[in-house]
Amino acid sequence: MSSSSTIRDVGVSDFRFHCIACGDLGDHASQDFRCSQCGDLLEITYPPWKEARPDAAKLKSAWRERKLSAKATDQSGVWRFRDLLPALKGAEDAITLREGNTPLYELPLCSRFTGVPRLFAKHQGLNPTGSFKDTGMTVAASFARLAGFRWVACASTGNTSASMAAYAARGGMRSLVLVPEGKISWSKLSQALDYGAVTCQVKTDFDGCLRLLQQLVLQAPVYQLNSINPFRLEGQKTLALELLEQLDWEPPDHIIVPGGNLGNSSAIGKALVEMHDLGLIPRIPKLSVIQAEGANALFRTLREASGKRLISVAAETRATAIRIGNPASWKKAAHVLEATSGVCEQVSEIEIAQAKAEIGAEGIGCEPASAVTLAGLKKLVKQGFVKAHESVVLVLTGNLLKDPNFTIDFHRGDLFKGTRDESAAAELNDLRHPPVVLDATLDAVIGTLEQAEKS
Ligand code: F0G
CA–CA separation, 144 vs 126, rounded Å? Predict the structure, then answer.
């Protein structure tokens, strides 16, 4: 085990806030994390990197060594990479649940039918609260506490609220959750309740909740923890750092992520560009974003407005995590797609359900919003954008257990009942494994086994 002082000194992480539209640079951000000059979003930049670029080889070895340390911040799959994150004053300032450290799986079954032999899934659903949100929350919640806030708040389709509530509880802060009533899964709601959040089921959609929150933080001493908060995105960058480390710094050809409010794609894209600038990787993977057809604001914005102005939509999808029509970080996402030469695609409800069952059949499972990545990959292969010899990483953003109703409805054959997809859904019957109710006899069990053997 190396002494932590030698490891800690590799990078400099003094940071500033930079407006993505007018370029204004500042040391402080206002409560709504919008530029004081033009009102657009802020990102975090690291001016010291321009003067003295951190040494790539030293960074890599420090990150490897920290894995052997017993310190909480070294065991965190986020703070292990702290050289490329905004600096906290001391390690004890970090609120950590040992987030990150998620596995990279091969997908042999999906490889076969997509025709992409080198296909992997980075499973962010195996974070402490079951989604990728934890990697950003550990950073933003730590800065909230450092700034002396008693209350943190977010608007959410469920996962952000679960994660925020957990980190607030760990950090001794109170949390306020605004979620669209009836439009988030019970599993996610139950997490926020258990972690002690004041949970408001608001009679609007996610976009309405976010509008309310943006007004609230200007009037009350409440720290906002949505992905408009640039500290969140800095933490979420570590997905890409950890992934590249797992691939021994050999970049995949493609990384594919789901798109909702578009913070995560922006964070991963920022990390890829920074890693390339710092000499950590020799080339930038293409980052592509997949949206549900019913929540396809970025897809339409790029197709119909060449990415120049946002086309909002009235969002509707059973993948409730990405049921967002007015994505806050659309400009950042459009920028990273351009910087990485990626694309945006949309997939149907049937395609999402099918892909989710196919990922489940690999024995790993994910929530519906994550499954858009596999559904999107199939389309990108058909279009020739992804080629058979290329390597692809799908980012699975949430755990299977986040939305059991979707899974149970699918396997029971109820998911598309009464919808216009009802007859088309019959094509997915081979993927369904409905539960069987039996008499408590050996004969009944053996009969079921024999029946299953034939199918
Ligand atoms: N996948 C899952 C499981 C999500 O929960 C989300 C977003 C996304 C993908 C999309 O990520 O917004 O960064 O583009 N969930 C947010 C929430 C909006 O409130 O939990 P994004």
Answer: 25
Question: Among residues 92, 156, 91, 111, which one has the least CA distance to residue 129?
Answer: 156
Angle ∠(240,41,242) on CA atoms, nearest 5: 10
Distance 323 CA to ligand 1 centre (A): 9
Q: Which residue type is seen at 368? A: P
Residue 87 CA to ligand 1 center (angstroms) comes to 26
Exposed/middle/buried for residue 4 (C-beta within 10 Å: 0-12, 13-18, 19+): middle
Q: Which of these, 244, 239, 331, lies nearest to 279 by C-alpha position?
A: 244
Q: Which residue's alpha carbon is nearest to atom 6 within ligand 1?
A: 321
Going from the Cα of 261 to the center of ligand 1, the distance in angstroms, rounded, reads: 7
pLDDT tens-digit readout, 184-242: 999 999 999 999 999 999 999 999 999 999 999 999 999 999 999 999 999 999 999 99
At 337-358, the pLDDT tens digits run 999 999 999 999 999 999 999 9
Pairing relation of β-strands 222-224 and 151-155?
parallel
CA dist 31 and 234 (Å) reads 18
From ligand 1's centre to the CA of 363, what distance in Å? Answer: 23
CA angle 70, 76, 80 (to 5 degrees): 90
- Longest Cα–Cα distance of the chain, Å, equals 76
**Residue 256 CB-density burial (10 A; 0-12 exposed, 13-18 middle, 19+ buried):** buried
Give the model confidence (pLDDT) of 356-407 as tens digits. 999 999 999 999 999 999 999 999 999 999 999 999 999 999 999 999 999 9
Chain Cα centroid distance, residue 378: 20
Assigned token pair, 50? 């321009």
* Ligand 1 centroid to residue 84 C-alpha, Å: 23
Ligand 1 neighbours (beta carbon < 6 A): 131, 156-160, 227, 258-265, 321-322, 367, 369-370, 397-398
Query: What pTM does this model have?
Result: 0.96
What three-state secondary structure class fits 290?
strand
Q: How far is the CA of 119 from the centre of ligand 1 (A)?
A: 23
Residue from 131, 229, 330, 347 whose mutation best tests the ligand 1 pocket (most atoms within 8 A of CB): 131
Helix, coil or strand: residue 286:
strand
Ligand 1 pocket check: which of 264, 317, 352 to mutate, most ligand atoms within 8 Å of Cβ?
264
